[in-house]
Target: TetR family transcriptional regulator
Amino acid sequence: MDRNFNLKIKAALKPRKTPRQQRSSRVVDRILDAALVLTREQGTMAPTTLAIAQRAGLSVGSVYQYYPNKEAILLDLARRWLSAFPPVIATRASANAPDNRDALRRDLREFIDEIAALYLDNRNLVPVLEVMMLNPDLKPVVAEYDEKIAGLYAAWLMRLNPALDAARAARIGFLFMEVGHTSLIMAVRGEHTVFDAVVSDLETMWLALLTSHLEPA
Model:
């Protein structure tokens, strides 16, 4: 998709104003909380601005003071979750690489646990991402975050193995992002025992894939 078109989309979906006072922040929180509850209740059908306003106990005009449309509300809600991933991965990408297999396994499990915690703590936002992926205006925004996350995974891989070429690191980084996301989305929908089992399975898969790419090609 044309980059200029993407920029126009994102400009149209930006909040109308950033809350600078505590009262304004509370209003925005009410709007986002209402949108989250409605999205969970309605599944993949995005709630209307009117429904969000009614659930938040606000007038539609009050909502429009902060957001131009319902897509902007969903985007702001999802950004709170999506923006949490890059700092976690970037920290790992800049840390010293483990110097033996046991250290690698421990480091990898800690890394996966950090990522898994973001899904577990924000599991109520999963329906929001699904709505965004079904919306042609919002899907490019999710794809942009995915690209950044995959790139950070690639940087982490090249930290583990400096001899790894960029193209191979990018391919594996994309796999880590996609497989991890799909697995953890499934996990948060199950019981805690299922979640723990999926996280352990993810560790096994990632370790096997990592090991085969740690030696120079």
Notes: Residues 101 and 211 are 9 Å apart (CA to CA).
